Amino acid sequence: FSTAIAITEQPVSVSVPVGYSFVLRCRAQGCTSLQYQWFCQYQSDCRLIPGATNQDLPIIAEQTQLYTCRVNDLHRNAVFSDWVKVEVHQCVARGLPPRLWRGEPVIVLNPSEQRVEVGQPLQLQCAAMGVPAPSYQWYRNGNLLEQQKRKKLWITHTKVSDSGTYLCCASNSHGEHWTNAVDVHIGEQNLHMLLCCTSPSVKRKIALLVGNNRYQHHPNLMAPVRDVFELSHLLEHLGFQVVSLLD
């Protein structure tokens, strides 16, 4: 007969405020009775958690750490669960998370406007709480940035085409939330000189697109991001210089 141990429910990473209480869960199946033991890792120090021998591990969030659970059977077989991260936010604004928080993403750090010369690095940063921990997706001018799926957006060598309006969507199984939209200016001085030197006889067509995504008394909308993106492409094909703004 098989003595394999199969983990049927992995623990999940969370992103929570300091002092928040929650439970990490691990479930497994085997041919004999199973024993559980939780471990944590802070920086490079990995240690057994005394007394943490149940399927559930209650935690009061104090500092960001990694956790894993070892499952043993009576034949000395053992498997480890996935390592999960408990990210703890030490400084959270008053009123966050909401009183009846169910774990939906809550933005705790918005990106800030940037002015960068061509060829210099660009970094935008955001953060959100959530249970499970949110995943991230960055957008520029309503256009999904396929490679930018972390809290930090990083471009090593910027180009003028990297200019635009950026925002990030944090999402988990409970929903999604968007950061504030911020403008990024690449090579602003060079662009200003180019516009000043343009012959006044040349007429330029400029289109300003404004998409409202967040309303005070209405749920967040998805359509404005997509609409602004599609309209900007259409207008660019018609010869317009397009400026896209969100919220």
Automatic annotation (TrEMBL):
Keywords: Disulfide bond, Immunoglobulin domain
Segments forming domain Caspase family p20: 203-247
Classification via Pfam families: Ig_3 (PF13927), Peptidase_C14 (PF00656)
Example GO molecular function: cysteine-type endopeptidase activity
Ig-like domain location: 5-81, 105-185
InterPro entries assigned to the protein according to its UniProt record, in alphabetical order: Caspase-like_dom_sf, Caspase-related_regulators, Ig-like_dom, Ig-like_dom_sf, Ig-like_fold, Ig_sub, Ig_sub2, Pept_C14_caspase
SUPFAM superfamilies recorded: Caspase-like (SSF52129), Immunoglobulin (SSF48726)
Example GO BP: proteolysis
Alphabetized Gene3D superfamilies for the sequence: 3.40.50.1460, Immunoglobulins (2.60.40.10)
Name listed for the protein in its UniProt record: MALT1 protein
Record organism: Chaetorhynchus papuensis (pygmy drongo)
Name of the coding gene: Malt1_0
